[in-house]
């Protein structure tokens, strides 16, 4: 069965490419991210500049021109059609205590910019230290606890700027 891929180039041009089209492509891999492509007797140098597999986005340089390309397969299109998103950014605006415990350490300050998975604070619960990390990139709006505070489950710990 022939797979069909929908592509969008530079957020402007839409193409459908089949797995058969890809197999007919006259391309030679020069290195891990560089290729030599021959199409209609014209030679092209192509290289993958950047890729984000989760977002299905790629930057490809062809003869010194850079193109932003999105590639979607049938499953990606079905998920999008159903109202879900693959690789979507997380829109978490607050962090609440996952369980009752004691705040041992706070690693951030209000106004600080943080990256996804960066440690924010340590919550001791049931004699275990739990590192609470940032669910997304963002800026800390407020910190609603202090070191030594006892918190209950769902107690608001940290808020992000929108």
List the helices and strands and how they pair.
Elements: E1 4-9, E2 13-18, H1 19-24, E3 26-29, E4 34-39, E5 42-52, E6 57-62, E7 65-72, H2 74-81, E8 94-96, E9 101-106, E10 113-114, E11 119-125, E12 128-133, E13 138-143, E14 150-151, E15 156-160
Antiparallel strand pairs: 1-2, 1-7, 3-4, 4-5, 5-6, 6-7, 8-15, 9-11, 9-14, 10-13, 11-12, 13-15
Description:
The protein is mainly beta and 162 residues long. The chain has 2 domains: 4-81, no CATH class; 94-160, OB fold (Dihydrolipoamide Acetyltransferase, E2P) (Beta Barrel). It contains 2 helices and 15 strands. Strands 2-1-7-6-5-4-3 form a 7-stranded antiparallel beta sheet. A 4-stranded antiparallel beta sheet has the order 8-15-13-10, with no helix packed on it. It is elongated. The two termini are 45 Å apart.
Number of individual domains: 2
Strand content: over 45%
Strand order of the largest sheet: 2-1-7-6-5-4-3
Can you give the helix content as a percent range? under 10%
Q: How many whole angstroms does the radius of gyration measure?
A: 23 Å
Poorly predicted residue ranges: none
| Distance from first to last alpha carbon | 45 Å
Largest sheet: 7 strands, antiparallel
Overall average pLDDT: 87
Record field, number of beta strands: 15
Annotation field: number of helices = 2
Morphology: elongated
Topology as a string of helices (H) and strands (E): EEHEEEEEHEEEEEEEE
- What class, by secondary structure content? mainly beta
């Amino acid at each position: 069965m022939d797979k069909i891929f929908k592509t969008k180039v530079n957020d402007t041009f839409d193409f459908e490419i089949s797995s058969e089209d890809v197999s007919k492509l006259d391309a030679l891999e020069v290195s891990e991210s560089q290729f030599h492509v021959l199409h209609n007797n014209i030679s092209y140098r192509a290289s993958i500049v950047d890729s984000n597999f989760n977002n299905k986005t790629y930057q490809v340089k062809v003869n010194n021109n850079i193109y932003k390309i999105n590639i979607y397969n049938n499953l990606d299109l079905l998920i999008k059609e159903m109202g879900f998103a693959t690789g979507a950014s997380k829109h978490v605006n607050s962090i609440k205590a996952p369980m009752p415990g004691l705040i041992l350490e706070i690693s951030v300050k209000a106004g600080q910019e943080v990256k996804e998975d960066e440690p924010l604070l340590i919550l001791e619960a049931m004699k275990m230290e739990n590192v609470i990390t940032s669910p997304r990139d963002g800026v800390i709006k407020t910190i609603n606890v202090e070191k030594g505070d006892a918190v209950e489950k769902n107690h608001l710990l940290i808020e992000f700027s929108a």
